[in-house]
Specification:
64% helix, mainly alpha, two-stranded antiparallel ribbon, 5-stranded mixed sheet, 30 helices
């Protein structure tokens, strides 16, 4: 009976956990769909962009991947849904954007459920005071776990960060899962089924593989277990070392497959960040930043609740884990909020235990405080703050789909990796470039500035050097040939064959300058993305005008400027494509002195001649003879038609000349004209006498117009007198 009851209890617990996990997955999926802001470049460039490059074959890998500082196991998590989508033909932009978020939502939900389990391990049977009593009431075994889960779901930083595709987020989920199975001394729930040390070690090893810095988290616990464990030999030799070696071997083999060479990524990571101090390249903070700013900002109201729980229940494991994690991550100079994410779960578990022990009013007040502090921060930072660099990708995707991109495609002039890239455009046929920010010796020559710093130092010079100065008119069309010839420079044009006459145009003659002009335009992007502050840099506005750019999108990024470089608005500029024929026509017009219309016709003839020559090069001897015969026949027919037309025109000209040279014909023609004039005058006189002259006034002589006016006046008087006489006669009859 006892076994059956225990089995039923275990089954009920499993059912509850599955239900809770399903609810967490649903919550985190909604959470993932709500997060539409930018946090840090690694969210894209160290995970999904790498997965996109692996699966689809195009994209960009940052400098870390050229020097073996990152492992491929983490990007492979997101490469799996990409590969499935590619295989079934559903690799749309929506899939490349949202499928990694959905995967990460499931990982975050797994972290939530293990916060639940961790609180149960540490604080099972947490008591709360009865509503109307000062003494402690009955125990609620799962109260701490339930409230810990509430804290995990309500935490603003979890909502904002846990569903992002950072390696830190996967590391945090693996870490809290490992904590939930770790053999804690003095834990409230010491049921053997909850202690799975090999599983905990495997999860910890996976966290270290995903992010080698996780070793700072686990090293103290490994040392403690090695010292205090009764079976320390078994722990070290049969569990820790084999599991750690297996994890390292798997990671190394995966990296060997994708790097094409042997790379020990954890060692490379440690050497670069710890020995060479490379982490400081992206900013350094004082040693106390994690203690005074970083962790208090992400833990907020949960930190004092956790401290109260540990004090009241004499369980110091949560504070110990948080303490050595925060202190361990204080050693490197470079610090970020997301680095502390693995330390958040113990705090939330302890805070949940404290909520479970509160009485009714005190709990309501604590919950209200949590909701009032967490929800506004979560929603504002997830939906609004720094949203422009993410939403601009939809604008660029729409431009690509509409066929508006051309030449060099898209250029981003934002600071280092401030938005996603090919995962959010997912079009292999469009060029995309951004300002590189490789550190010295890792892509940027030592002693030189990277592209982002060069742009910041002298933006106008950087743009002119890399893309040239444009020659567009204000409406975006190309200026005349002389304008771009002056810009290219006479020494670059290469007028090495002399200026031909209009009749001497031949295929492919004098095309160097046209080709150079066209190539110059092809190097210039069709769309430029920048923050509003970048537009004010010296030379930027002038360069944009020179190429005919106009602002086509103005997106809100932040309510206030984030810093000196990252401003509050994101602007998109675009320019119309230049007709390729324009360059060739301009070259012909400049070389020959033709008008634009003449040069356009000559260019078309050149093109037809070139096509004909190209066709002849691929023909057989018989086909070439047949072509020449047909062309000769067409030429003879054309010459015959032209000769017939010339003969007809010459005959007409000869007849006219002979007629003009015959005196009798001239006299006869003059008499004919005089007779026609006499008959016209007689006809006019006759019609005048009969009052039938209906010619317009313009055909009358001045005397004839005067006579017409007199006749019309006399007729009007006669009609008036007749009307008056008739009226007088009518009145006489009435009398």
């Amino acid at each position: 009976m006892a076994k059956a009851a225990k089995k039923a209890e275990t089954k009920a617990e499993t059912t509850v956990l599955r239900t809770v996990f399903a609810a967490c997955v649903l919550f985190r999926v909604v959470n993932a769909l709500c997060v539409r802001t930018f946090f840090s470049a690694d969210e894209y460039w160290q995970s999904v962009e790498v997965a996109h490059k692996l699966v689809f074959g195009y994209g960009h890998l940052t400098w870390e991947w050229s020097h073996g500082l990152r492992g491929y196991l983490h990007p492979l998590i997101f490469a799996i849904p990409y590969k499935i989508a590619q295989t079934i033909g559903l690799d749309s932009t929506a899939v490349t954007v949202w499928s990694p978020r959905i995967v990460q939502a499931v990982i975050a939900a797994a972290g939530d459920i293990h916060v639940y389990k961790l609180a149960h391990r540490w604080f099972a049977g947490a008591k709360r005071k009865a509503k109307d009593e000062k003494s402690e009431g009955a125990a609620e075994p799962d109260a701490a776990a339930r409230w810990a889960l509430f804290c995990s779901l309500a935490c603003w930083f979890n909502f904002f960060c846990a569903v992002r595709t950072f390696s830190n987020c996967t590391e945090a989920a693996l870490t809290v899962a490992a904590l939930a199975y770790w053999p804690w001394t003095g834990a409230a729930s010491e049921n053997v089924k909850n202690v799975k040390r090999p599983l905990s070690l495997a999860l910890a090893a996976a966290a270290c593989v995903v992010r080698p810095a996780a070793a700072l988290y686990w090293l103290p616990m490994f040392v403690e277990e090695s010292v205090k464990s009764v079976s320390r030999v078994r722990f070290i030799l049969k569990e820790a070392l084999p599991i750690g070696a297996a994890a390292l071997a798997i990671s190394t083999c995966v990296d060997r497959a994708f790097y094409g060479r042997w790379e020990i990524v954890p060692w490379n990571f440690f050497r670069f960040n710890a020995l060479d101090g490379g982490g400081a390249l992206y900013g350094s903070h004082p040693w106390h930043w994690n203690l005074t700013q970083g962790y208090p900002a992400i833990a907020t109201v949960f930190l004092p609740l956790a401290a109260m729980a540990c004090r009241d229940k004499k369980r110091w494991a949560p504070l110990a884990v948080v303490g050595w994690t925060v202190l361990g991550y204080s050693v490197p100079a470079h610090k970020e909020f997301r680095f502390l994410l693995p330390a958040l779960a113990p705090t939330l578990a302890a805070a949940g235990a404290q909520l479970a022990s509160f009485s009714g009013r005190k709990r309501v007040a604590a919950v209200a405080l949590i909701l009032l502090t967490q929800i506004p921060a979560a929603l504002y930072l997830s939906l609004r703050h720094q949203s422009g660099t993410v939403s601009v990708m939809s604008v660029l995707t729409a431009a690509v789909d509409a066929g508006e991109t051309h030449s060099a495609g898209i250029l981003s002039l934002t600071p280092c990796h401030q938005h996603p890239w090919t995962t959010h455009v997912h079009r292999p046929n469009v060029g995309m470039r951004f300002l590189r920010c490789d550190p010295p010796g890792f892509g940027t020559p030592k002693g030189e500035l990277d592209e982002a710093d060069k742009f910041k130092a002298d933006a106008g010079a950087f743009l002119r050097f890399n893309f040239g100065k444009g020659w567009a008119k204000p409406d975006g069309s190309l200026a005349d040939a002389a304008a771009w010839r002056d810009i290219l420079g006479v020494d670059q044009v290469g007028w090495d064959r002399g200026i031909p006459k209009p009749g001497d145009i031949e295929p492919n003659l004098h095309r160097k300058d046209a080709v150079k002009a066209r190539n110059a335009a092809l190097k210039v992007p069709s769309h430029v993305v920048m923050f509003d502050g970048a537009y004010a840099l010296d030379g930027v506005a002038e360069w944009l005008r020179s190429w005919g750019f106009s602002k086509t999108a103005d997106l809100r990024h932040a309510d206030v400027p984030v810093d000196r470089e990252i401003q509050s608005r994101v602007w998109v500029f675009s320019r119309p494509d230049t007709d390729p024929d324009h360059f060739e026509i301009a070259a012909v017009a400049e070389e020959t002195g033709m008008t634009w219309e003449q040069a356009e016709k000559a260019t078309m003839r050149l093109r037809e001649a070139t096509k004909r020559r190209d066709r002849e090069e691929t023909m057989t001897h018989e086909e070439r003879l047949a072509l020449h015969e047909r062309m000769a026949r067409e030429r003879r027919e054309k010459e015959e038609k032209r000769a017939a037309e010339l003969k007809r025109r010459s005959e007409e000209a000869a007849a006219a000349a002979a007629k003009a040279a015959d005196p009798d014909a001239i006299i006869a023609d003059r008499r004919r004209k005089e007779e026609e004039e006499r008959l016209r005058v007689e006809e006019n006189e006759r019609r005048k006498l009969l009052g039938e002259d209906d010619r317009p006034d313009e055909e009358l002589t001045p005397q004839e117009r005067l006579d017409r006016m007199i006749r019309q006046a006399a007729a009007n008087i006669e009609r008036a007198e007749a009307a008056a006489a008739k009226e007088a006669e009518g009145k006489k009859d009435e009398l």
